[in-house]
Here is the input.
Amino acid sequence: MKFFWFVILVISSTLVYSQSFEVESFFSDSHKQGGIEGVVFDNETNNEPLLFATVAIKNTTVSTTTELDGSFSLNLKPGSYTLVYSFVGYKTIEVENVIVTSNKTTSNNQTLSALEASFDISSID
Here is the structure.
């Protein structure tokens, strides 16, 4: 009789633990998120992709850098965001009211221009 209960216990535990699912999928909001993707271009080189530029969400700690092909992507909760595009030696650009909706990706490409160099030589002795 002990052997019978042992077999039943082993079979039932095998069936229970063999089912695989992710518990966090019941609680996560990842299926409610959307995204922003795009490419950052360099205006000084006939719109070549600008690699390693920073794309940030204003007033947050969320940011990313562009890849070797100038592309970037951010996963965000639905809402309206201000994107800040920056790169050393280039003008920083802010794009307001970029709308993110759930389960959709918003495209936002941007072209950055180099800062103009200005020299004041009147103070040189």
